[in-house]
UniProtKB/TrEMBL annotation:
The lineage of its organism: Bacteria, Candidatus Gottesmaniibacteriota. GO terms for biological process: DNA-templated transcription. It comes from Candidatus Gottesmanbacteria bacterium RBG_13_45_10. This is Transcriptional repressor PaaX-like central Cas2-like domain-containing protein. Residues 108-166 form the Transcriptional repressor PaaX-like central Cas2-like domain. Signal peptide: none annotated. It holds the Pfam family PaaX_M.
Length: 262
């Protein structure tokens, strides 16, 4: 399989989790670096061998170009002492990983309120409106209906910062509801399951657990991609709002066991 075809296959198979060969290379490097001191020598060698095999699958010119872009951006640096990959993650690179890949939050403070976000932005400012939608989504909100979002996490600071930096020409309204505040005919639990697609996410968590719970990892990359592709869709609601038997925590425990990252 040619390098370009391989890279495109990875992007398709991970639902956009890895958007370029550059991100794929950075992620694989992060995995190998994260294992240092936490696995046996055999396991570490296995991880390095796997990384090398992955890189050999991609066209050399593609890798060279990806490495150059990463180093130019300050995301990776060459080490003075050669290693199997000759690349070390810099602090900036680690921050990029944190932004690129989701992290499981074991602590989720909640003030007991739900928040409704609505906005009215002129059509001529469509770019600002689209940017606002992305900001609202980052706040952990889900679309309830056109221009109306709901979230359990207070979005006011994020929205204030947005308006300050983007000169919002319209109006943004935030309404605070109690935990039992009515939003239509559904109760809150059913509403959250629907708008956050929690049933589908839970089924994916269940499949992940069943696939890997009794295995010893032979391949680092596929397991990480399988888990993170689910986690990126998990809104990570306050634990008090998650439906009964939601498997997010169990999947996280399974993932940590596989990689000894506790």
């Amino acid at each position: 399989m040619r390098g370009r075809q391989f890279g495109e296959l990875i992007v398709r198979s991970t639902d956009g989790l890895l958007r370029s060969v550059t991100d794929l290379l950075l992620f694989q490097t992060y995995l190998v670096t994260a294992l240092i001191g936490k696995h046996t020598k055999y396991e570490m060698d296995q991880g390095i061998t796997e990384a090398q095999q992955l890189l050999e699958e991609i066209n050399y010119t593609t890798i060279k170009s990806a490495c150059y872009r990463l180093m130019r951006a300050g995301l990776i640096v060459k080490t003075k002492t050669p290693t199997a990959l000759e690349i070390a993650i810099t602090d900036l690179g680690k921050r990029r990983i944190d932004a690129l890949f989701p992290a499981y939050h074991e602590k989720r403070p909640w003030d007991g309120h739900m928040y409704l976000i609505s906005y009215d932005i002129p059509t001529k400012a469509s770019s600002i409106r689209d940017l606002l939608r992305r900001h609202i989504h980052r706040a952990g909100a889900a679309l309830l209906q056109e221009s109306l979002w709901v979230t359990p996490y207070n979005p006011q600071k994020l929205l204030l910062d947005f308006s300050k930096h983007h000169h919002n020409p319209g109006t943004i309204l935030v309404s605070k509801l109690g935990k039992d505040g009515a939003i239509g005919a559904e109760d809150l639990t059913d509403l959250l399951v629907r708008i956050y697609h929690l049933k589908d996410i839970n089924e994916r968590y269940h499949e992940f657990i069943q696939t890997y719970k009794n295995t010893r990892p032979q391949s680092l990359l596929p397991i990480s991609l399988a888990y993170l592709s689910i986690l990126k869709d998990d809104p990570q609601l306050p634990f008090a709002l998650e439906p009964e038997n939601f498997l997010g925590k169990q999947a996280y425990v399974c993932y940590r066991r596989l990689f000894h990252l506790s």
